[in-house]
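Hello Y.,

Per our agreement to keep a running log of every chain we model this quarter, I'm adding this entry. I've kept the format consistent with earlier entries: sequence first, then predicted structure.
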Amino acid sequence: MSDLEFPMRQAARLVQAWEACQRAEETAKAKRWQGIDEVDFDALLDSEELGSYRLNSYRRYKVHYDSEDTVGDMLLSRHIKEIQRRALTQYCIFKVATLATQNMSDRKRRRLAVGLTYEDQDIEVPKPRET
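Predicted structure for the entry above:
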């Protein structure tokens, strides 16, 4: 460490990083022991958080996407959680359902709780306009 510009500052940073790693390891071990699994990629984010991500995307890239080009809320929520946890997955882009496809589906499936869904059977779906 003698060739560093500020050796005491670098040593303090190293100690802080080591302590943070130790705390993270202890927290993960405690969660495994309690049986808590916080990784639920299929849970939908609330509308405020999704709206803030879309707004931040517009502020940065200045691009507005129509509903036939925008991905669905479930996939967007999943990608946000994967990025936050650094657990990215590859998808075939030709099989991704857009918001327009999601809104035009025949039956609406509502998630009531983890593992419990409700399907509406008597929903009339508007047909797309022909131009």
